Amino acid sequence: TILVKVTAVQVEDFDFPAGAIEVYLGATVEVSFKNVTPADASLTTVEWEVKDYGEGDATVEADDDCIYITGTEVGVADLYGYIDGEEIGHQEIVIKERIPVESVSVTLSESSVIFGESLTVSTDVQPSNASLKDVTVTCSPASLATVSGNTITAGNQAGKVTVRATADGVSGTAEFEIVAPPLTLTIKGEGFGDGNRYNFLS
């Protein structure tokens, strides 16, 4: 057995992001830095410190490529970075109260579509001033339909599909049905003129 000791490459310089770093209370935000020198240096070699001024606090952890800031008290604090005891720079952290999502509603433009057709999905997140309003839409079973933005496209298999929209861990659902297109039968022959077509819906 050969043991190899890997030593992280020391950061020599980097630039703090422009503008304040915003994070919600109890949430964690990932922060990356530009112009890290050398390019393969690890941010774990930087000494990180969060200074609070009586109102607002956060914790910081680092890996090779970025740091993770978690808000622990609402208010304002400062993030400092040191290399060999020398301050490289600092940036303001704003820790905000998180307003949770209470409900998510889902509205579909159609209740039934045939193979290959599309429908539109719209969502409503309440309260309107919720902190984390980004919505993720999925279909189940996933094999029956695909989602792209606010458009759902049916596949070529009949069945009922549940559309689920989720924001901040809260979900709402709606359903639609995929049906086969009507069968068209054309009959030609004596007594039928040039031919008659019949649509069989089931």
Question: Assembly type of the shown chains?
Answer: single chain
Categorize the overall geometry: elongated
**SSE sequence, one letter per element:** EEEEEEEEEEEEEEEEEEE
* Beta-strand percentage range: over 45%
**Span between N and C termini?**
70 Å
Please give the order of strands in the largest beta sheet.
Answer: 2-9-8-5
Task: Let me know the average pLDDT.
Answer: 90
Q: What is the structural class?
A: mainly beta
Question: What percentage of residues falls in helices of 4 or more residues?
Answer: under 10%
Strand runs, count: 19
Describe this structure in words.
With 202 residues, the protein is an all-beta fold. 0% of the residues lie in helices and 56% in strands. It has strands at residues 13-15, 21-24, 28-31, 34-37, 47-52, 57-62, 67-73, 75-83, 86-96, 103-108, 112-114, 118-126, 136-140, 145-148, 151-154, 159-167, 170-179, 183-187, 196-200. Strand 6 and strand 7 (67-73) form a beta hairpin. The mean pLDDT is 90.
Short description:
The chain has strands at 13-15, 21-24, 28-31, 34-37, 47-52, 57-62, 67-73, 75-83, 86-96, 103-108, 112-114, 118-126, 136-140, 145-148, 151-154, 159-167, 170-179, 183-187, 196-200. It is mainly β and 202 residues long.
Using brief descriptors, characterize the structure shown.
mainly beta, elongated, four-stranded mixed β-sheet, single chain, about 200 residues, four-stranded antiparallel β-sheet
